[in-house]
Write a structure and sequence with these properties.
Blueprint (H helix, E strand, L loop, with lengths): L1 E5 L1 H7 L7 E5 L45 H10 L2 H31 L3 E5 L5 E6 L2 H13 L4 H4 L5 H13 L7 H16 L2 H4 L1 H10 L10 E4 L1 E2 L6 H4 L3 E4 L5 E10 L6 E8 L13 E7 L10 E6 L11 E12 L6 H37 L1 E2 L2 E2 L4 H32 L5 H31 L12 H9 L8 H14 L3 H15 L7 H24 L4 H28 L6 H10 L6 H7 L5 H12 L5
Parallel strand pairs: 5-9, 7-9
Antiparallel strand pairs: 1-2, 3-4, 6-8, 7-8, 8-12, 9-10, 10-12, 11-12, 13-14
Helix pairs in contact: 3-4, 3-6, 6-11, 6-12, 7-9, 7-11, 11-12, 11-13, 12-13, 12-18, 12-19, 13-14, 13-15, 13-16, 13-18, 15-18, 16-18, 17-18, 17-19, 18-19, 18-20
The chain binds ligand UCC.
Ligand UCC binds next to α7, α10, α11 and α15.
């Protein structure tokens, strides 16, 4: 038996809360239980938890309020960046939507997780029916998304390049309460981007109809789109993984035969998917150049599936609200959407969109858990006071806050670049910058979200581990952010691809952009920013030095350094965004503290690890030797 005794003296000396200084001693024979006497039973009325008397209150739950009003970073970014007239126009929308999220949508989102989709392959008589049963809450999210224009806003284009920022800001309020409806919305936005850029959309009535439905605010007309790219061989290497074949039909359409291994949101109305066109003698081209993109309506007018069999729903760690399925395409009617053999190229503008959505979802979840943890810290008492009054807890919240502000600014600023690009107002430099920051944004915010949400769960103690609080689901859902839409390593390689394809121009504009963001700090009164800028400048110079030599070191070296390079570029860029934000005339002291703390970390792990020999041939050999140690030969 263990006995607990207090060591008050030690506690006082270290100024720790008394209860943290408890010591545990094994019960010695000298320890005596108080003797129970038959003549003197415990006085019954004072015994707590007798029978069913459990009391009416255990712990107060955190409140989700007006998620816009409580988000100072989002508000201040918009005030700083948007023309005043645009800010005045969109603010009421964000204000009222922020309130709706707290009052209504958050709960609908939780319902999506409580009522997961089901697949019913056969009816009672053995007929194949392939019914996908989704919850009322899931369907309600579709209606909410349509009414609120979550996909429509950038395409309605009321505010030119700022329309994209408006959408991303609004979706950042929505995503983490959408019950993962954010997934079909991401793909729908990707499909919109494709249709908007395709010359076929105007001339082909089927495409024109799809385009108008995907951006409709009328729930009865609104469609969502899937994006079926992943086949049995895996999702990263699309060029070698695509086995689906497209057989031309006399009317110019195609029939698709293949197996799609991960098809997210299979309840979507249409999809864009990849296949290889088979010529009349049965030949088709392997590799990237053989892949074309097709448009498929998931159901026929009578409601039956269009040559598609749902094999099973995937049993996933998280995102279980989304009906993700394995699909057999057995003669699905399809229309060629891209140029022949340009399917991979055609998906890349969609990837830019879905990767931005991935990142806004990451930032949205980070902000939400932090808002909830902050609220909870005022309600929850431990060791005699609210946990907000425990400095160590506040330090934890502050560290989460630093990352969350960084993630939010990164997302919003990338949305700004995308808005310029898609309204043809981007300079060449801005387009190049968008090309390199998109994979950086996706890979880095995903990792930050997983870490922040994990930390966030801890802020609720044991309650963070209890299913029906809705908190564990947030962690499960976050885990996919670094996997779908390109894993961290695939995106690191995409950063390198952007550098190689542009002969280093993306890197050049990246450094230029860093410099110009730091210039603003010289005018600021916040002393914290001087040091932060100095550190950013120093690290950026070190990185430039390293890159001068590294780019000549060959592909293996660069591949090995690629992930650390991507992390370094992300940290530098986020640092510069935080400094720029804190240099604004209306910035708060909090903004300056955040920039300062961010810049105290190792901003350039690629330089550190280069100096530690991580990318040398010896380093490479060490990796393999260690990894394979103990593996049976
Ligand atoms: O679909 C999925 C799940 C859906 C759920 C969506 C939820 C979204 C978020 C929700 C939030 C809650 S997951 C499937 C995702 N799959 C991927 O992300 C694919 C991962 N693999 C890659 O990203 C690869 O890098 C590929 C497939 C893009 C490229 O592979 P290749 O075959 O090696 O490609 P190449 O040969 O290097 O490039 C082919 C062309 C080149 O252009 P051209 O032909 O003009 O020389 C490249 O420069 O594509 C160009 N390209 C790009 N252009 C390649 N990547 C890009 C890029 N990122 N941007 C612009």
């Amino acid at each position: 038996m263990w006995r607990v005794t207090s060591t008050f003296a030690l506690g006082e000396r270290l100024a720790l809360p008394t209860a943290t200084c408890l010591t545990f001693r094994y019960k010695s024979s000298a320890f005596q239980e108080p003797k129970k006497s038959r003549q003197q039973p415990y006085p019954q009325p004072s015994v707590p938890f007798r029978g069913a008397e459990r009391g009416s209150f255990f712990q107060e739950q955190p409140n989700v309020g007006n998620v816009y009003q409580e988000d100072v970073v989002l508000q201040s970014f918009l005030r700083r960046m948007l023309p005043d007239s645009v800010f005045q126009e969109i603010s009421p929308d964000l204000e009222s939507f922020g309130a709706r999220v707290g009052a209504e949508i958050h709960e609908v989102g939780l319902e999506c997780e409580r009522n997961l989709p089901e697949h019913k392959p056969f009816d009672a008589w053995g007929n194949r029916v392939d019914q996908l049963l989704t919850s009322e809450a899931w369907k309600k999210q579709k209606n909410i998304a349509a009414e609120e224009g979550i996909v429509a806003i950038p395409y309605e284009n009321k505010h030119g390049p700022w329309s994209r920022v408006h959408q991303v800001a609004k979706h950042m309020l929505y995503s983490s309460s959408s019950g993962l409806y954010s997934c079909p919305l991401a793909m729908t936005d990707g499909a919109m981007q494709f249709f908007r850029g395709s010359p076929k959309t105007a001339s082909n009535p089927i495409f024109a109809n799809a385009f108008s439905r995907l951006m409709s605010r009328d729930p009865s007309k609104f469609w969502t789109s899937g994006q079926w790219m992943t086949e049995r061989r895996g999702g990263s290497d699309v060029a070698n993984g695509t086995e689906t074949l497209a057989f031309p039909q006399p009317d110019g359409s195609y029939k698709l035969h293949g197996y799609k291994w991960f098809s997210s949101a299979t309840d979507s109305d249409m999809t864009l998917t990849l296949a290889r066109i088979v010529d009349p003698i049965g030949h088709y081209v392997q590799g990237t150049k053989g892949i074309s993109m097709f448009f498929v309506e998931v159901r026929k007018p009578d409601g039956s599936l269009n040559g598609i069999e749902v094999q099973k729903l995937k049993d996933k760690l998280g995102t279980r609200q989304v009906p993700t399925a394995e699909l057999l395409l057995d003669g699905a009617d399809a229309i060629l959407a891209s140029e022949e053999g340009r399917g991979v190229r055609a998906i890349t503008p969609m990837l830019t969109i879905t990767r931005l959505h991935n990142s806004l979802s990451a930032a949205s979840a980070m902000r939400k858990i932090l808002q909830m943890a902050r609220d909870y810290s005022l309600r929850r008492k431990a060791f005699g006071k609210a946990i907000i009054d425990h400095p160590l807890h506040v330090q934890t919240l502050h560290r989460m806050e630093v990352d969350t502000r960084g993630a939010q600014l990164f997302v919003l600023d990338t949305a700004r670049l995308l808005g310029l690009e898609e309204t043809n107002q981007a300079t060449e430099e801005e387009s190049l910058l968008l090309r390199i920051v998109t994979p950086l944004l996706k890979l880095y915010t995903a990792k930050m979200a997983i870490a922040t949400i994990s930390e966030g769960l801890e802020c609720f103690g044991g309650q963070g581990y209890i299913e029906d609080t809705g908190l564990p689901g947030m962690l499960r859902d976050a885990q996919v952010l670094s996997i779908w839409e390109g894993t961290t390593n695939i995106l690191s390689l995409d950063v390198l691809r952007s550098v190689v394809k542009t002969n280093g121009q993306t890197l050049q504009v990246f450094f230029n952009s860093l410099e110009s963001k730091l210039e603003a700090a010289s005018q600021s009164n916040f002393v914290e920013l001087k040091e932060a800028s100095k550190r950013l400048q120093g690290s950026s110079n070190n990185l430039k030095e390293l890159l001068k030599d590294a780019l000549n070191e060959g592909p293996t070296f660069m591949e090995l350094a690629g992930r650390d390079l991507a992390y370094s570029l992300s940290r530098l860029y986020i640092g510069s965004l935080l400094v720029e934000h804190a240099s604004w005339t209306e910035a708060t002291q909090g903004d300056a503290f955040v920039a300062q703390r961010w810049c105290e970390q190792d901003l350039c792990p690629v330089v550190t690890n280069f100096n530690n020999g991580h990318y040398s041939q010896t380093g490479q050999l060490q990796n393999r030797t260690t990894v394979m140690e103990g593996y049976p030969q």
